[in-house]
Amino acid sequence: MIDTPKNLTRNILLGLMLGFVVGSFLFYTNFFPSSVDTFVEKYIFKMGGDIFMNLLKLLVVPLVFFSLVTGISSLGSSQSLGKLTFKTVGFYLLTTGIAVSLALIAGSFFQPGSNYSSDITMAAPSSLPQGQGIYSTIVGIFPSNIIQAMAENQMLAIVFFSILFGLALNKTNHLTGNLSDSFAKLNTVFLQLIVMIMSFAPLGVFCLIGKFVIADGLDIFQDVLAYVVLLIALLLFHAAFTYSLFLKFIGGLNPLTFYRKMKDVALFAFSTSSSAATIPVTLRTVNQDLGVNQNVASFVVPVGATINMDGTAIMQGLATVFIAQMSGIDLTLFQYIQVVLLAVATSIGPLISQNDENVIQAFMVGPMATLRLMQLCYPYLKQQGGSIINMASTASKRWDMSNYGVYAAEKDAIRALTRAAASEWGPDNIRANNILPHASSPALQKWMKHRPEEAAEFTKSIPLQRVGDCETDIGQFVAVLCSPESSYISGQSIALDGGQAYMN
After folding, report:
1. What's the number of domains the chain is made of?
2. pTM here?
3. Which of 336, 378, 407, 488 is catalytic?
4. Can you tell me the distance from the alpha carbon of 465 to that of 488, in angstroms, rounded to the nearest whole number?
5. Are residues 330 and 463 in the same domain?
6. Is residue 407 annotated as part of the catalytic site, yes or no?
7. What are 196-234's pLDDT values in tens digits?
8. DSSP class per residue in 268-334
């Protein structure tokens, strides 16, 4: 048995608390010069946190591969695998459905968004957005290049290939001199690597928490305090009550014993906000501390980290109700059912790979920043009129929405806010428009360099067969849009994309 670091839970908690304290001190005080704060934020918190996360992510792909291959090749028969797969996936989808249902019920009862005040009221959508990436999601499960899939952390593809490889090894083990034993030994090596990296977990957690606090403080929660409190309460209730019932009556396990032994996993997941990065810790814990058969754990844990996102489902459900209440939208029973089905369905797909931190950050720097800037400018624009030009994107009109769901959602939110501002502030002689540009920016050039095939397809889909120039194609039009010659243009989303997008 592999030895684990002593007092790991205590040390992680100390790192967590110390990160909060140090980050808060630097954010809320001016004790040190700003240069010192910047140095600590970039070269201690950010660099330390990024290094630690990189080390964890370094192990995820090989660990998932070797764990699944080892587990499946040792199960004995394909019938055993079929039963295990059915039970595992069924249980995961069931808990996801329960999670999002709890969120919708609690959101409707406690009304976290009913007292939210904003100068802009969003219009209710005529229908819920339709998924555009189902085809790509399903096809993406079956990789054409497993090396590329591993390099891009395409977990569904990696899981599928690992299962396929494990089945093949199971059937040919007698012909390969028990090659499965070699995979089991390699799996043990990677488990040892986990232990080595986990020795630095307290320091890594310190840096990760410190990076979050020193950047935003605790003010980020003030505007949506009711939502945040209710979200945390629901997450704790689902973990403590729902899972306890399953553990007791289906698993025959004392819930207190389970939670006590899983404390390291919970702390680590909280600190990293990543299910994938927590896989190594989860595997070690369920195998060594809970006594789960290694072959079973090697299959169930990686699959669960890929398709079982109860926390995200709760966040999605509660956010739906919160935004609807904030916007004055009354959701129907059918729409509630749609949300439940959508949350369960998307628990198996690329969207689920987005953690809460990424989604919140995208909306904070996108629509929330846009809204706040417009609100700040409004009193000055009201005095003499003026023009607001926001930057959105044609991403929501992509030929394939796969892997662009969050980005497209926050850009479409900017379009909606701009349209609302144009409608509400028009009497004050304030115009508000969006531009949706395709411009040869450094970010686009980087994307085209790393994804040449997709970039070529992208350029081919532009009728003018080229990407726009920032200054001549985009900047000059913005100047015209700000001029008196455009004084009757407002509430529009104008695609500067060479004719690619069909706007509606």
Report:
1. 2
2. 0.49
3. 407
4. 31
5. no
6. yes
7. 887 888 888 888 888 878 876 665 555 456 777 887 888
8. HHHHH--HHHHHHHHHHHHHHTS---HHHHHHHHHHHHHH--HHHHHHHHHHHHHHHHHTT----HH
